[in-house]
Fold:
Amino acid sequence: MPELKYVDGYPEYMRESIEVVNRTRGKRKDFVPDAMTAEEREEVLKVHPDYAPGGKRELALGPNAGDPVPGPVADLLEAYPLIDGKEIDLARADLEVDVMVVGGGLAGTAAALCAHDSGVAKDKILLVNKLRHGDCNSIMAEGGTQAADRPFDSPDRHFLDTIGGGHYANKPDVLRALVEDAPTIMHWLEELGAVFDKEDNGDYVENWGGGTTARRMHSCRDYTGLEEFRVLRDEFRARGIPKLEHSPAIELTTDGSGRVTGAVLYNLETGEYRVVGSKVVILATGGFGRLHIRGFPTTNHYGATADGLVLASRAGAKLRDADTVQYHPTGAAYPVQIVGFLLTEKLRGAGAQPVNREGEAFVFPLEPRDVEASSLIRECYVRDNGITTPSGLRGVWLDTPLIDVKNGAGYIDRQFPAMKRMYARFDIDMRKDPVLVFPTLHYQNGGVETDPDGRTNVEGLWVAGEVSGGVHGKNRLMGNSTLDTMVFGRRAGISAAQAVASAGAGERTFQHVTSYVRTLEEAGVATDRRAPMLLPEYRGKAALARMIDVL
Amino acid sequence: MGNQTGMMERISESTRSLTTGVDTKDVEHWVMIYIMGRGYRVPADLTIMTAMEFAGYRLIRSCGCRQGFCGACATIFRREGEYKLESALACQTRVEDGMSLVQIPFSPADAASYDIASEAYAYSVFSKHYPEVARCVSCNTCTKACPQDLEVMDYVQSAIKGDFGGLTEQSFDCIQCGLCAIRCPAEIVQYNVAQLGRRMYGRYGSPEPAHLKARIAEIEEGKFDEALDRLAGASTEELEKLYAASERESDG
Ligand SMILES: Cc1cc2nc3c(=O)[nH]c(=O)nc-3n(C[C@H](O)[C@H](O)[C@H](O)COP(=O)(O)OP(=O)(O)OC[C@H]3O[C@@H](n4cnc5c(N)ncnc54)[C@H](O)[C@@H]3O)c2cc1C
Ligand code: SF4
Ligand code: SF4
Ligand code: FES
Structure:
């Protein structure tokens, strides 16, 4: 291929279409396509990766036998453990605590803080993390956090928006907890010193999100998760609560009659294991973007590999809505270095429009995510109105300059520093030119089922955050997830602390693992797959082909 | 609507090298980079992070969000023929021919212990917890090192002046990568100073809105209980009707 000529970050051939978009902007300024009817939504959802044929299979075993889940998830739920327990002395604990939190995103960090607030001594808490405390999806949340706190708005409106967006599959009792606790979570963050965007009169700046009927999105520029998370992490550090990093949990232990009693950790750097006994375990391991379901790139952090689903379901926990996956409508499609990275929905909330090759606005910009994503896929692959990049991806434009047209010059500078910076690093000025987008794998809608306190059907096991399922039904709305992590992280921390008061330490065994392996064999699952995955494999194929293990 | 299975395959084919690791046969343009001194030939359109993976490194440190938000991937590099050390985020920086690099996965800095609820909202909070901040010699090295292009020296100066609002504004986009602190001749840990300052501003300088407090009180009084009871008990058909009838707030 000859070298392409680039002008302001884009190859010349893409510029032609950009000029069309730039020319048609004035016309589109006051034109927004109508929102879809229920029938139109149903029609376009046929091209959604969840509903397009293929890609799923029914689980052969476990608490959810018979339920369809995405193939890569089934591969992990039907896989042999990393260790069988024979090589490990489970009876000897390296550490015994009251509350072990597995996974230190917003959910896990909130859980640890609230367990501490509820009376568990700090040295009886342990937070373990696969990577650093901070390598997580939480820190990347850009757009915002929902909370119905304006007079026009109400918790019941928040409830209805969420359950409608979730295709009515949401679990009502947990959803109710979500909307009722939301303002309290904002209050908690304020007390801890998080800095949210505010109007001159001190009220919150609140924005639209896809599928909301009121402005309800609280943001911190486009670094909302960064601000929320670093404040919680700083509080965690300031209190001196113990943590272990680069030490993923690779299996839970149970007492032989079903209760969770601890976990086995693995030091990623030295290869040692550690056994931790804990009266209760709060699993907050986040989502599964790195499984690249249906071959999509992802917005998720490096460690988003569904470990929590594997560990919990082996211990007998029930999953729900694990068949649906959220593809964010606007992932970067160009340049290749940032493909799949997130372009926050807040951009559309502020007026950016998806536009096709011909400069036409073809969809209401703030449909619920599954509908919006489907309509982008349809525009590119069914109607053939997309733009193809030099590396062979298709996408449509997100007309970002429209934001400043609508809100005044300087708005992008103030409200979207992260987005602007990301593009500037690749010579693109998103204030002047549109950016190319295509859906990207974003969020695990379903997960481990819980009650409103984060308790699972397995004794001794709580879950919180993206690893859980129920609150978002079959499709999550923007801003409900950071909220979910803190609402249920907090509730899990409080309720686990209460349980600790009356619980003794239990025996640690791998009986659940042994019996799981037996079921695998009985179900005739012939495989050498092993799980949890811990990290995805991105090493170059040539390098991998020559690797030998001699030391 | 066409052959959707085929469509999904076409999509996944177009991103294969991004989701499964790069296959050499797809690559047309190459560059040489030097990872801790050792040369590797890597595809020209990779980032430092994906180039290291291409070369065979399985990253455990120096890789978190992969998207410019977590600060795990701080990297120091030098261009061929230049004396200057540059800093960058490995996940956000394209490789260049002749680049010589090392990653700094960790900076051995202590964070202070404090209870934000009982600190004084004044400069003294910095002198109490990070007294070294007064030693800033205004050399601007930190600003040059910041991969977020923040005016780091300016925010340190704001801290010294007790200007919490200015510090918050100037340091807000800090991802705590540690590169400024590693290079500071006065051993100031800028990002920790900023973290403390922003929290102080959040708590004392930017008060909680009245409408939030009012809403919490309403919830506690049970104002929404009836509506929520009804929704939580409603059938899907009822919910569908309510959802379709729900009016959007006017944009004005
Ligand atoms: C780019 C991006 C933007 C987003 N924007 C928004 C937004 O604007 N608003 C919103 O509401 N939501 C948003 N979300 C979603 C939201 O941020 C996440 O769903 C949420 O923060 C998840 O929090 P968590 O604590 O459950 O998981 P995470 O934050 O992912 O934390 C999980 C942690 O567990 C660790 N872990 C995993 N496995 C193990 C193991 N085996 N042992 C030990 N530790 C383990 C992980 O390494 C990680 O540190 C966004 C997500 C992404 C990726
Ligand atoms: S201020 Fe320091 S820690 Fe923060 S992003 Fe810049 S260099 Fe990194
Ligand atoms: S590098 Fe250190 S001494 Fe120099 S300006 Fe920055 S904070 Fe001050
Ligand atoms: S990996 Fe998080 S900033 Fe680069």
Chain B has a mean pLDDT of 95. Chain B is about 40% helix and 10% strand. The first helix of chain B runs from residue 4 to 14. Residues B 63-66, 68-73, 89-91 surround FE2/S2 (inorganic) cluster (ligand 4) (CB under 6 Å).
